[in-house]
């Protein structure tokens, strides 16, 4: 203990001595005493600074005057030794304190004083070596901390001083080293770099660097760093190319690669690569690199480095250089516009579609005249050189940076005008115009005198004389199946004529029964799956809307009649899954399947929920799924397809849509990405240039060439996409088992390539086929983070496994060498497409398989499901109407569904209660590629039509108006985002055109009509899919939270707002396993002012106006953490949304119900008076989704013109341990200033 005390006293003494010495030095400056005294005092201070960290800390702490005293002395003294002492003190201070102490020195004016000292010292002849070494050393340390250092150095004339020192003392390595370090700092300023280049600095650097040598490796390393900084200037890069230095750099790199056997000089090798990377930023540099055989040199050296993990920085930097220098290719297409043409009734005056129509036919829209028209600044793109070495420190930095950015930086996309934010109900159309929608609301006027109404007690409905159970509630449980026979319609709720539509046929089954007769017949007995051979699959080359192919033999046709026409819900699985437990309920008719844990979970009823505490409500109870009617009917599907109108006039039907899909009885985890897979794929792409003779370049499928004949070669795969929702434009065989695939643009557009759905046949088992979709446009994708594409095997379906499954290995998403024209890139040149690549091995020979971006859900499937729901419902219990909202541009009907409970009787009181139920307005599938939205909607519809007491209570509480597919034409024709107008319909809600955007015009008209008759919906929700985030979440609208994001705290406090918009998302976070409250946002952005969510909130006055986003990938929280999402979970989300609405009813109408006391506490927790911003949000202008917040892969650099690079560096927000212990409101308050 005494020893510690002595040390403390000694430290205190030293500290006091420093203070005293500094005071004495200050007095010396004032009194102009003899220089010997100043020399003595500074030497004593130097001794203390060298020996005591506390001394160094005290001299640089806030409020200390030590630094000012030293700088003042340095500026005024003429004594050389005093100057050297002070310089040594400053070196000690900044060397041990990191960047903070260097910044402290800059803040005290150190840069200017030291630069002036350098200029004064240079006037001596010869200059004092030690003084120059010390001055350059300290300037090299503090220069990067001074934002104006380059300007100061240039104005003072210091550039030439340093450069001349290097030239004159070329062999004096002790002096040259700090001079080179300072030259590197100078060169970060582009003007300085050009100035130095004119004075021969580039040539000077090439005199210093050279072949492998064990001597002066430190000097070599600094010279290379300086050269790399200098070559970032295009002028210097051109000078280096003109003098042949690209070849020199490659020669030096090969020499160091060959001789550095123990890899002790990796930094030198990387410095050479950094110089090559800088010089290849210009077109001349890239050409010189190609001419010098640089692609082959770097390819070979990088392949030799793969075995040593520590050399990954060399491999990745080499990969970046090669990809940059890879000659830009044009997509092998005649035009980037869609293969299909649809003439619009009205051509927009402005916008992308107008530009598309005004483009002269002779213009090449695939590639510009020069893809490298100017020297593209590749450094402007976000580059992370090591795709796989994202260590924990970097991730922690991302998390901290993300929190800072989202909490403290204002985004220009946030609406800041409170007057614009406030909802202002504007009818938009006169009441006379809106009367055209009266016939779509008969529930408001019908007196039900012609109906035989009975008590509201649920009664089972009868199917052909048999008492059947209720409709299956879509949950994460087993999807039950049964007979697909039709059900007699009940009391007359009929389909009506829309404002623009024609009367739709209630039963789409027509007289043309050719295909159902051949494929279906009347016999529905299940046969053994083993009776099917591969010949059947080969014979079933296509399901067409005409006849079965003539080559099918009578025996095969009989087998098809017996089995293939069978709805797959009645096929049975005879193989047990060893890793799953047996489910007690019947999966297939006549047999019991073995299902995993997810198959037995269901949606709990409200009675069950009320008995549970809010903490345990997330756990779903196991329920036995009752037997009930299936919604899939293959024969009905065919009949509906015949009436579906497509631009290409499709005559074929995809097997998955004909057979149907049931969720597989196993979990599908998010794929773990193998180390180095992306650079391996990139290296294989580079091999195309190096070994061009190995490339087949053979067209295997071409939608643009109507005369194209499918090759008969047995070694080539056969492709097809000529069916509803299909999208595949062209296929080129690159190698024996590798294919490049090109997607079709949205009709009347030249981009939006993401959705794909195509057929593959002619495969051989045991071969790993690589598929590259080469014209993607987004800068990143969940394919980089565990998402897999989907595959459906016909052979597997015939073997009683009719489901889409996630497949593929070696999956990644990266920027490729195919150039996007300025026409396709919004006027920007030099941008590239991106590649989705995956590898698949097929289990069966000559199978027919289908691949899709996400689980397909066609327009015909929706119509089939609606007809089955209508035919199976109990008309005495459920009020169900299927009207036609309008006709689309191509003449397809847009369905409008009304669901509620029938009134208890036709007495006045019961009719009034019926008419006064609040409206819930739901819509989905405005973006065709977001098929998951339709699966969620399917779950909602099935739940609403079920006979469970909870569903009946929900129907008695609300009237549901549902537009399940807002963009039928886009869905039918395989678009990803647009309708046939070539426009994103979710950007047209503000001013929809009745001829170009009929579904939006009339959907908005319905809402305007409700507002006009004072019946605005309680909730509006638009179902969407999200391609870059995980989980399910909501976007809502809040004035207070939007203003808070502008950091106008005073304005935010003045806003009074009902917080009820948070109630429904909060409820869903408690009851829906896939829902994530922390991903929700309630900020209103300027770029979203024409979306459904914002327009319905602002113009219709619906406070609870939402977009519900469902991931295309999977979940990273909750019960489904680590799993890819499937139709089972999506349908469950749709059902949970219904349960949430019933809870919302109970929370907002507490007098109607006798709630347990804990539910009131729950309500108080939901609706708070303070502003809660649970999750920070960033924005992107061309999406309905915020920026992708996972780690960005080095090879998917963002060059998206509308995306903020700053956010590309951010990581997913991860709460700290302290935050995890807080409630949502506490976390929000913790993040608020």
Automatic annotation (TrEMBL):
Pfam families: Pepdidase_M14_N (PF18027), Peptidase_M14 (PF00246), TPR_CCP1_N (PF25571)
Active site per the UniProt annotation: 1109 (proton donor/acceptor)
Keywords annotated in UniProt: Carboxypeptidase, Cytoplasm, Hydrolase, Metal-binding, Metalloprotease, Mitochondrion, Nucleus, Protease, Zinc
Catalysed transformations (reactions): C-terminal L-alpha-aminoacyl-L-glutamyl-L-glutamyl-[tubulin] + H2O = C-terminal L-alpha-aminoacyl-L-glutamyl-[tubulin] + L-glutamate; (L-glutamyl)(n+1)-gamma-L-glutamyl-L-glutamyl-[protein] + H2O = (L-glutamyl)(n)-gamma-L-glutamyl-L-glutamyl-[protein] + L-glutamate
EC number: 3.4.17.24
Record GO terms (molecular function): carboxypeptidase activity
Region forming the signal peptide: none
Biased composition (Low complexity): 613-625
Localisation per UniProt entry: Cytoplasm, Cytosol; Mitochondrion; Nucleus
Domain Peptidase M14 stretches: 855-1145
Gene3D superfamilies in the record: 2.60.40.3120, Leucine-rich Repeat Variant, Zn peptidases
Annotated region described as Disordered, given as residue ranges: 474-527, 606-629, 1209-1233
Bias type Basic and acidic residues, positions: 492-512
Cofactor: Zn(2+)
Top-rank lineage group of the source organism: Eukaryota
Assigned protein family: Belongs to the peptidase M14 family.
Protein name, per record: Cytosolic carboxypeptidase 1
């Amino acid at each position: 203990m005494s020893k510690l005390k002595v040390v403390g006293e000694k430290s205190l003494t030293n500290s006091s001595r420093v203070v005293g010495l500094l005071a004495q030095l200050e007095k010396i400056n004032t009194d102009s005493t003899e220089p010997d005294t100043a020399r003595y005092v500074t030497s004593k201070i130097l001794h203390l600074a060298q020996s005591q960290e506390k001394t160094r800390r005290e001299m640089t702490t806030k409020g200390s005057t030590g630094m000012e005293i030293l700088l003042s002395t340095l500026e005024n003294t003429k004594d050389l030794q005093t100057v050297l002492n002070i310089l040594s003190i400053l070196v000690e201070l900044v060397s041990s304190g990191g960047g903070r102490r260097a910044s402290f020195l800059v803040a005290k004016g150190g840069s200017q004083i030291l630069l002036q000292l350098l200029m004064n010292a240079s006037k001596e002849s010869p200059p004092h070596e030690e003084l120059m070494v010390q001055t350059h050393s300290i300037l090299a340390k503090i220069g990067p901390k001074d934002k104006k250092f380059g300007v100061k150095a240039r104005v003072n004339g210091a550039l030439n001083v340093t450069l001349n020192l290097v030239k004159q003392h070329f062999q004096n390595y002790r002096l040259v080293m700090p001079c080179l370090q300072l030259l590197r700092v100078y060169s970060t300023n582009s003007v300085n770099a050009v100035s130095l280049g004119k004075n021969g600095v580039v040539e000077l650097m090439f005199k210093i660097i050279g072949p492998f040598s064990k001597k002066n490796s430190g000097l070599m390393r600094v010279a290379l760093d300086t050269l790399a900084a200098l070559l970032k200037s295009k002028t210097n890069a051109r000078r280096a190319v003109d003098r042949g230095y690209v070849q020199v750099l490659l020669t030096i790199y090969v020499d160091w690669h060959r001789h550095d056997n123990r890899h002790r000089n990796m930094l030198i090798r990387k410095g050479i690569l950094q110089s090559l990377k800088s010089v290849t930023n210009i077109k001349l540099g890239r050409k010189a690199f190609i001419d010098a055989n640089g692609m082959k040199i770097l390819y070979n050296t990088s392949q030799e480095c793969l075995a040593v993990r520590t050399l990954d920085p060399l491999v990745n930097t080499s990969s970046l250089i090669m990809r940059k220098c890879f000659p830009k290719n044009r997509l092998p297409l005649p035009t980037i516009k869609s293969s299909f043409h649809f003439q619009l009734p009205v051509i927009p005056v402005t916008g992308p579609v107008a530009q598309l129509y005004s483009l002269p036919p002779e213009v090449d829209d695939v590639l510009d005249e020069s893809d490298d028209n100017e020297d593209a600044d590749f450094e402007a793109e976000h580059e992370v050189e090591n795709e796989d070495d994202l260590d924990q420190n970097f991730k922690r930095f991302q998390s901290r940076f993300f929190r800072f950015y989202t909490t403290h930086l204002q985004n220009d996309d946030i609406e800041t005008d409170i007057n614009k934010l406030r909802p202002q109900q504007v009818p938009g159309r006169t009441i006379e115009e809106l009367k055209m929608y009266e016939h779509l609301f008969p529930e408001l006027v019908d007196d039900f005198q012609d109906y035989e109404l009975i008590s509201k007690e649920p009664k089972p409905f009868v199917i052909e004389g048999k008492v059947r159970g209720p409709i299956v509630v879509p949950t994460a449980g087993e999807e039950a199946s049964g007979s697909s026979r039709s059900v007699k319609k009940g009391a007359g709720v009929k389909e009506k004529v829309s404002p623009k539509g024609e009367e739709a046929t209630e039963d789409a089954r027509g007289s043309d029964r050719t295909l159902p007769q051949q494929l279906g017949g009347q016999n529905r007995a299940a046969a053994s799956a083993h009776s099917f051979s591969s010949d059947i699959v080969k014979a079933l080359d296509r399901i067409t809307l005409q006849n079965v192919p003539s080559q099918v033999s009578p025996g095969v046709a009989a087998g098809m009649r017996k089995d293939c026409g069978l709805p797959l819900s009645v096929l049975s699985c005879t193989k047990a899954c060893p890793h799953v437990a047996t489910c007690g309920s019947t999966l297939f008719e006549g047999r019991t399947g073995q299902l995993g844990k997810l198959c037995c979970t269901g949606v709990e009823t409200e009675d069950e929920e009320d008995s549970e505490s809010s903490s345990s409500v997330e756990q779903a109870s196991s329920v036995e799924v009752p037997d009930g009617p299936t919604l899939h009917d293959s024969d009905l599907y065919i009949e509906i397809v015949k009436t579906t109108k497509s631009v290409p006039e499709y005559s074929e039907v995809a097997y998955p849509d004909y057979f149907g899909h049931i969720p597989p009885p196993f979990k599908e985890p998010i794929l773990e990405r193998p180390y180095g897979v992306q650079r391996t794929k990139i290296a294989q792409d580079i091999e195309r240039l190096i070994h061009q003779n190995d490339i087949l370049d053979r067209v295997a499928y071409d939608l643009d060439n109507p005369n194209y004949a499918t090759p008969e070669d047995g070694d080539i795969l056969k492709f097809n996409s000529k069916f509803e929702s299909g999208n595949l434009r062209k296929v080129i065989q690159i190698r024996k088992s590798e294919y490049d695939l090109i997607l079709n643009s949205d009709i009347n557009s030249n981009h939006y390539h993401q959705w794909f759905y195509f057929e593959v046949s002619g495969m051989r088992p045991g071969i790993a086929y690589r598929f590259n979709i080469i014209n993607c446009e987004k800068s990143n994708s969940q394919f980089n983070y565990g998402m897999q594409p989907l595959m459906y095997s016909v052979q597997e379906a015939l073997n009683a496994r009719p489901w889409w499954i996630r497949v593929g290995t070696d999956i990644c998403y990266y920027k490729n060498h195919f150039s996007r024209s300025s026409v396709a890139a919004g006027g920007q040149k030099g941008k590239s497409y991106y590649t989705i690549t995956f590898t698949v091995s097929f289990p069966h020979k000559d199978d027919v398989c289908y691949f899709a971006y996400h689980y397909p859900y066609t327009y015909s499937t929706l119509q089939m499901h609606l007809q089955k729901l209508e035919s199976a419902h109990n008309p005495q219990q459920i009020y169900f109407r299927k009207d036609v909202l309008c006709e689309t541009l191509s003449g397809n009907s847009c369905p409008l569904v009304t669901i509620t409970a029938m009134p208890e009787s036709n007495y006045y009181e019961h009719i009034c209660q019926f008419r006064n139920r609040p409206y819930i307005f739901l819509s989905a599938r405005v973006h065709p590629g977001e098929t998951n939205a339709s699966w969620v909607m399917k779950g909602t519809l099935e739940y609403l039509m079920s006979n469970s007491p909870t569903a009946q209570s929900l129907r008695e509480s609300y009237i549901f108006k549902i537009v399940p597919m807002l963009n039928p034409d886009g869905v039918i024709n395989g678009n990803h985002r647009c309708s046939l107008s070539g426009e994103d319909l979710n950007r047209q809600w503000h001013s929809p055109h009745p001829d170009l955007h009929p579904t939006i015009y009339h959907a908005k008209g319905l809402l305007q009509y409700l507002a006009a008759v004072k019946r605005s919906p309680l909730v509006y929700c638009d179902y969407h899919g999200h391609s870059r985030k995980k989980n399910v979440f909501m976007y809502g609208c809040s004035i207070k939270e939007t203003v808070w994001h502008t950091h106008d705290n005073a304005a935010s406090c003045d806003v009074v707002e009902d917080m009820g918009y948070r109630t429904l998302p909060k409820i869903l976070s408690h009851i829906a396993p896939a829902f994530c409250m922390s991903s929700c946002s309630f900020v209103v952005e300027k770029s979203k002012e024409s979306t459904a969510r914002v327009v319905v909130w602002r113009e219709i006055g619906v406070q609870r106006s939402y977009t519900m986003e469902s991931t295309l990938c999977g979940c990273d929280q909750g019960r489904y953490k680590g799993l890819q999402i499937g139709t089972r979970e999506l349908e469950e989300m749709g059902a949970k949304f219904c349960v949430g609405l019933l809870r919302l009813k109970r929370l907002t109408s507490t007098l109607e119900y006798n709630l347990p006391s804990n539910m009131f506490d729950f309500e108080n927790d939901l609706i708070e008076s303070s502003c809660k911003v649970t999750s920070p949000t960033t924005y992107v202008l061309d999406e309905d989704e915020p920026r992708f917040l996972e780690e960005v892969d080095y090879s998917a650099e963002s060059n998206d013109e509308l995306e903020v690079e700053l956010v590309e560096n951010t990581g997913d927000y991860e709460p700290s341990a302290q935050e995890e212990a807080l409630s949502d409101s506490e976390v929000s308050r913790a993040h608020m200033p």
